[in-house]
Design brief:
- Helix content is 78%, strand content 0%.
- The protein is mainly alpha-helical and 452 residues long.
- The protein has one domain.
- The radius of gyration is 22 Å and the shape is globular.
- The termini are far apart.
Length: 452
């Protein structure tokens, strides 16, 4: 084993440890804050904020040109002019999102005034337009985040990144809880998010993070960013529609209260997925990109070495949640949120192919952002075509089942492309599946034993 391989392994382990620890702590803060805030605020407020977050996330994804991916993957990713050009583009994008959000806010207000939106749905909530307008400030603030954060990601120097993320989140959460304990209104969530965004932006420009950001416009850098980013842009649009489409669709079908309950189940079902995706984007992607650049013959072995460890954890978590989800909800939340139990058990199956979809990170490392876009487009079409139909026949239960099965449609194309790149190992794809059934059976047995 050469020194380059050992060095990469050490950096990967260190970066992965930072990201995993930081994101687990972040999820702990989210979870703890969620438990406290659900006792201080009514479910309707979480339903309204779900729509606000969906819209802002959508605009962020619809304007994504892959700045982080460019900096991690490009050979010019450490040049000052390249980085400063990326920062300038990031600021322009932030203000673009800010102004478009204001237009959407005004549109929702007038649609409400003229009776085009039902007051029984989340979109028809009277406070939604103003909340959305105020929350748009976070987009402009985030545009000024130091581009050095992306450079640290490229170098797998994750300690400072994690510290900034966690501290900013903690400050925002404290503000939310203090405000909610006094006023008990939705503005606790709004201003907590704004303060968290501001704190992250300020900390990102600390002197020990890296060089000072300056406005710059290098035409060659712009050309490279947009050439690679055009497929990332398309992929980001579809990724948003997959990640947020369930709430986009359900927001027009169910009440804010029901959407708030669904949001609890969705949060718990995707908390683990968020941790894994954070590790994928922050650690696996830089590692696989470096392997693809320097020793492509090792890419398959490195990929499946990471996959095997991931699949073990995924199968255990899915089996556990699918068998005991209703008990988790009963223990953690009051009777207003009990319907989240059966939703959590069904939604847990949306995680089962998380390891397989990691192939998308491999494609990106090879510079094939087009395939990633096609994969997300397929899932988007499936989601938006099946959820409304399932709801019309089976109600909310059918819609949740359709949402949980959404990822399955990507699998055939993933396996085809992996085989085309000579990266596919059928044995490694399916060898961890028995763990899923063992975990599910153990969960059911444990419930029977406890109740007997």
């Amino acid at each position: 084993m050469n020194s380059q391989t050992i060095s990469l392994r050490k950096r990967t382990f260190k970066a992965g440890s930072w990201v995993l620890t930081g994101h687990l702590f972040s999820q702990f803060l989210r979870f703890g804050g969620n438990l406290i805030l659900t006792r201080l605020l009514v479910p309707e407020m979480f339903g309204v904020m779900a729509i606000v977050n969906v819209i802002l996330a959508g605009l962020a994804m619809f304007s994504d040109v892959g700045l982080l991916q460019n900096i991690v993957q490009s050979k010019r990713g450490e040049e000052r002019d390249y980085l400063n050009t990326a920062w300038t583009i990031q600021i322009i994008r932030g203000f673009l999102i800010f102004f478009v959000t204001l237009v959407i806010s005004a549109s929702l207000y007038y649609l409400n005034q003229f009776g085009y939106l039902s007051p029984d749905t989340a979109y028809g909530n009277a406070e939604l337009p103003l909340i959305l307008a105020v929350m748009s400030i976070t987009a402009a603030i985030s545009g000024f985040n130091s581009i050095q954060l992306s450079l640290l990601n490229r170098k797998l120097m994750m300690g400072k990144l994690v510290a900034i993320e966690v501290f900013s989140q903690l400050v925002g959460l404290v503000i939310m809880i203090l405000w909610a304990s006094r006023a008990h209104d939705v503005w606790a969530l709004v201003f907590g998010n704004i303060i968290a965004s501001g704190m992250k932006m300020i900390l990102s420009h600390a002197s020990d993070i890296g060089g000072r950001c300056r406005f710059c416009w290098d035409s060659e850098a712009v050309s490279e960013i947009f050439h690679f980013g055009k497929w990332v842009f398309g992929s980001s649009i579809f990724t948003f529609l997959i990640a947020q489409g369930d709430r986009l669709i359900l927001g027009g079908l169910i009440s804010p209260n029901e959407l708030g309950v669904y949001g609890i189940a969705f949060f718990l079902a995707t908390a683990f997925k968020d941790v894994v995706r954070k590790v994928m984007s922050s650690v696996f992607y830089p590692v696989l990109s470096e392997v693809a650049r320097t020793r492509p013959e090792d890419l398959k072995n490195v990929y499946y070495r990471m996959r095997s460890r991931l699949d073990i954890v995924v199968m255990i978590v899915v089996g556990g949640l699918a068998s005991t989800g209703h008990v988790v909800i009963d223990l953690l939340y009051d009777e207003r949120y009990q319907d989240a139990g059966w939703m959590l058990e069904i939604l847990s199956f949306s995680i089962v192919f998380l390891g397989t979809t990691m192939a998308g990170v491999c494609f990106m490392a090879l510079g094939d952002s087009k395939t990633v876009m096609i994969l997300t487009a397929i899932s988007t079409f499936f989601l938006f075509s099946t959820v409304p139909i399932a709801y019309s026949f089976l109600g909310l239960y059918g819609a949740v089942v359709a949402i949980a099965l959404n990822t399955v449609v990507e699998i055939p194309l993933i396996l085809y492309k992996m085989n085309k790149y000579k990266l596919l190992s059928w044995k490694d794809e399916f060898k961890m599946w028995p763990i899923l059934f063992l975990s599910y059976g153990f969960g059911k047995y444990l419930l029977v034993f406890i109740n007997s």
